[in-house]
Amino acid sequence: RAGWLDPALSPLLLWQIPTRLGFSPAALAPVARISQAKCPVLLGYGGVDPTVSPEGIRALFLAGPTPTTLWSLQKAGHEDLYRFDPAAYRAKIGEFLGETLGAPATEREP
Q1: What's the pTM?
Q2: What is the 3-state secondary structure (H, E, C) of 9-41?
Q3: SS3 helix, strand, coil % of the chain, rounded to 5?
């Protein structure tokens, strides 16, 4: 975020993306694209995220396919869910994978 310069800098930076990176900024529209997912989705959200607002994560969640799960760590930021609480992170990912993929082969009944 560029503060008061944001209105002037954002259009200039966005204009360069197709030439420098080879794709359109419109391709980075998660709310518009998430409904195209063909699998269950787990959204992890940090409650003090400076990048994604509570309204933004809610819009992403509501636009998601069925099932979409929203998991929030209220004191975590944008990229530190694991660093904030490694045990809770591992448990949530394990739970999500167990629910969506089933039990590991070693735990399945014959």
Answers
A1: 0.73
A2: HHHHHHHHHHHHHCCCHHHHCHHHHHHHCCCCE
A3: 55, 10, 30
